[in-house]
Amino acid sequence: MNLAMAVVIVQIAMLLALPPFIIGLIRKVKARLQCRRGASVLQPYADLAKLFKKQPVVSSTTSWIFTATPYIVFSSTLAAGLLVPIFVSQNPFNFAGNVIALVYLLALGTFFLILAGLDAGSAFGGMGSSREAIVATLAEPAMMLSIFAIALTAGSTNLSTIVHKTALMEGIITAPPPHLMALVAFFVVALAETGRVPVDNPATHLELTMIHEAMLLEYSGRYLALLEWAAGIKLLVFLSVIANVFAPWGIATSVTPAKVAVGMVVYVVKVSALALLIGVIESMFAKLRLFRVPELLGAAFILSLLALVFFYTLRG
Amino acid sequence: MSTLLVLLLSCYIAGSVLPLCVPHNSRAQNLLAHGLAGAASLLGIGLGLCGLVASKPLTLSLPSSIPHLEFAFRLDALAAFFILTISLVGLAVSVYAFGYVTKFYGRTSIGVLGALFNGFLLSMTLVVLADNGFFFLIVWELMSLLSYFLVVTEHEKPDVRYAGFFYLIMTHIGMACIILTFLVFFQDTHSFAFSSFRSPDTPLSEGLHTLVFFTVLIGFGTKVGIVPLHVWLPYAHPAAPSHVSALMSGVMIKMGIYGMVRVYFDLLGGQFPWWWGFIILLVGAVSALLGVMYALMQHDLKSLLGFHSVENIGIILLGIGAGMVFHTYGLNEVAALGLLAALYHTINHAAFKALLFMGAGSLLFATHTRNIEEYGGLLRRMPWTGFFFLIGALSIAALPPTNGFVSEWLIFQSLFLSFQLPSLFLKLMLPIAAAMLALTGALALVCFAKAFGISFLAQPRSLHARRAVEVPLSMRAGMGTLALLCVVLGLGPMLVVPLLDRITGPFTGAAISAQVLALDGWALAPVKVEFSSISTPVLGAMLMALGALGLLLAVIMGGPLTKRYYKTWACGLNLSPRMEYTATGFVQPIKRVFETIYQPTVKLETEFLEESKYFIKHRRFEFHIEPVFEKYLYTPIVTYCLAAADRFRIIQAGSLHLYLAYIFVTLVVLLLFAV
After folding, report:
1. FRET pair for A158, CA 20 to 30 Å: which of A6, B130, B596, B601?
2. Prediction ipTM score
3. Contact B566 A294 (CB under 8 A)
4. Which residues in chain A come in under a pLDDT of 50?
5. Which of residues 119-178 of A touch B (CB under 8 A)?
6. What are B198-243's pLDDT values in tens digits?
7. Are residues B355 and B237 in the same domain?
8. Structurally, how many domains does chain B consist of?
9. How far apart are CA B181 and CA A119, in angstroms?
10. Are residues B274 and B160 in the same domain?
11. Using an 8 Å Cβ cutoff, are B189 and B196 in contact?
12. Quick check: A111 and B581 CB within 8 A?
């Protein structure tokens, strides 16, 4: 019991501590690829600390939804993170929710963000909410099918069970082609859900293109800090799912000091590598027009459907 | 238990008669009618719970002088569950109605309205209790007619009359199919008793068996509003007074679900080929997706909710369909799971949909309009209504840890467990249905973000909204009851699952409550513990704790939690409600992406100043989506019927002698047949 408590506390600490680093790393990679020196990878930590110290200005047209949303988004994203095995494959909260619960916890945050975007009464917030709505909607079926295609191999939709079984290579039905297709589909969904290029550009504040940033436009001070932090945690959650479900090797399959230490180091390396990849993708591709996004997510859906077909046919 | 039943029925009967006897005192009539309905509902909750835990069904029978008709009552677990659903919603709606009908004082007779309300609840209770086909048909028709009268309460408005007429026609098409179903059974068993249907001497021939499937699907399908038989629903639900809409959408359409489960699993004993389940699944997926898509384009709050009923019925049918498919392949535990999930969603939908309709009624009460483009900023003016509506919205969008999430999650699991099926086709179709359900869920989230965000947030968009005040206490109490029920059903699945298991156990032959409730009931784990599990109480606690952590972090890192209020930045202009995003604008991207389904027509008329075409004097924007089913399915049928009626007009010459001749000829023909 105490061990489980310790694992949960360390996991919360890592979920809180890592996101600014990941964001900083992506920015650094982009800067380097653009031949700039870029800010330090630790800059996002300083940004967060600064935002927390500032007094927030709240629009006088808003209701309690506006001020409650940052806390709800923060807690729902963090709760989703607790359902993902990070450095220990047997997550203590495995029983509390499977991958569908994870998807719907993130949806809870999205719901309140959409509301908050509408609350201030400016057109920008509504624009962001409306766009976020269509992206989130179209990502959902692809996400569900790709997750299911992965879940089939381990015979479970509980993330910890999938990761644990895959790490130990027991009770797994290996079928690399469907696995790979599901991975690509899930990666596309992850880019869309976390507001990265080519779906959204987190670096822009241009009303014609912004999605996530438009919903946060009226926020300032600690509210903005919490929301930025939550956005980082959401990215980390998706990266953790990709890293641990598709390549669980190195994760601690039992809680011994040595294995846990290795697990932590390997985890940080894995998500950093994925952050590098995202940085490269963001530098290589332009943002898609909003009405081209359905094609991208449609392709992800078809890929995950194919993964399912292949899975069943390859097994005969 | 039989005393409870008799008391319950007499309460409703008193409620349908006494208000008519109190002359010209709206307040007394109101108090009497809704007080009796509330009392009867309390008795109903007791009866439902007793019936669910009872070891064997309660039967009661009164003979009649009409051949084959017997007033037979039977309270088994399925009936008890539906009585519980009717009564829980009935109680909340009765409390709510006490405040809501004050709107009609002096405009319509409260006595009649209250009597019809009680009669409607009574007829629904009798529908689930009936154990004789003939008796069932009578009370079913009674239910349809009483709801029709309630729909046309405001019959002075032409659109209400149209909606009522539409409803009357559609419900009778369904009625005809249900009559046909029971006649098929009757010609086989020569009795209308359900017990004889259950164990016929000779089983139905294959053709008749198939016929029963389709007549039941269409007959009860018109009541539940499956696509394409849903067209009446978005007309009738908004036309009725809001407390009646809450009952119709929350409970009455569930009677169709009751009918389907009763016939397929009980009367036919679960004997059916696999494609029955597949068709139900298909109908469910299509209804769910189209229901929510049309709901998104609605800006009349009550029509929007009406379309959402189509969606949720689709979700329930996904559960039933999955259950039927698994049942035919002998996977009894998963079959029980699908059916259990469907019934769970039934009571959940009853709770949150009635809550949302009451919320819509409160907005109508306060602002006198149903158009959400004229709302705005209502959360500050009506904080309680807003809060309860938000709970309803979170539940219908299936967000954790609400009740909608639990039942949709269970349906997802039953669809995912399809990998055990032997047929490759079904193995692929069920996950696709799950993906459709995911899309439906996401669209429902967007729809309720729209409904809540545009109605309750930002600045008021009209004078009506600016002048709105919070509704009376009884209305808030009614909504609060159901909001509480939503929370309880969400956080306490361990209380609900064992009760539902008593229904699905006998039908599918597998009791699964012990398996589903893992960790002393704190987690739900469908059939295989390692396949998946959730725990809404833990998720709820987690959300609270982590929210507190966020607050704590804000204090630690930023010090005291002060804030400053200032107006929203509007590029230097003064912020006005006209700058806000409208509901139409909000869903425009979705309209554009799903253009093939909506087939929108946009009309833009611009009038320029005479001096220069660079200055616009007047601009008018109109957009409509194509009512595909009405245009391509119903209009041709109506046109054909009218044309046929035109032809037959020749025999109606208006001469008395001719009619006498007709009667004579008919008599002769009948006599010839008799010989």
Report:
1. A6
2. 0.95
3. no
4. none
5. 119-123, 125-127, 129-131, 133-134, 136-145, 148, 151-152, 155-158, 161
6. 888 888 888 999 999 999 999 999 999 998 899 999 899 989 999 9
7. yes
8. 4
9. 53
10. no
11. yes
12. no
How near does any CA of chain A get to the CA of B634, in Å? 31
CB spacing of A93 vs B452 below 8 angstroms? no
Query: What pTM does this model have?
Result: 0.94
pLDDT of A164-185, one tens digit each?
A: 888 887 766 666 788 889 999 9
CB distance A57–B538 less than 8 Å?
no
Residues β-bridged to residue B71: B62
Chain A residues 217-276 within an 8 A CB cutoff of chain B: 218, 221-222, 225-226
B549 falls within a domain: no
Report which DSSP code applies to B575: P
CA A182 → CA A177, B417, B452, distances in Å?
A: 9, 19, 35
Q: Find the helix packing angle between B254-261 and B110-129, rounded to 10°.
A: 20
- Other Cβ atoms closer than 10 A to B210: 15
pLDDT tens across B424-449, in order? Answer: 899 889 999 999 999 999 999 999 99
Same domain for B634 and B615: no
SS3 B130: strand
Cα of B88 to nearest chain A Cα, Å: 27
Domain end point (choices B488, B516, B532): B488
Closest CA to B131 of B59, B181, B63, B187: B59
Is B525 inside any structural domain?
no
Strands B523-524 and B564-566 come out as unpaired
Q: Before A141, cis peptide (omega within 30)? A: no
The full 3-state SS of B562-619, as one line of letters, equals: CCEEECCCCCCCCCCHHHCCCHHHHCHHHHHHCHHHHCEEEEEEEEECCCCCCCEEEE
* Host domain of residue B106: 1-170
What tokens appear for B321 in the block?
Answer: 């369909």
Domain boundary among B447, B462, B488: B488
Residues B670 and B608 in one domain: no
Among B327, B186, B197, B344, residue whose Cα is nearest residue B257: B344
B254 and B288 share a domain?
A: yes
Nearest to B566 among A57, A94, A155 (CB): A57
Residue B177 domain-assigned (yes or no): no
Q: How many residues does this entry show for chain A?
A: 316
Same domain as B236, residue B139: no
Q: Are residues B165 and B281 in the same domain?
A: no
Compute and round to an integer the Cα radius of gyration of chain B.
Answer: 27
Residues B269 and B369 in one domain: yes
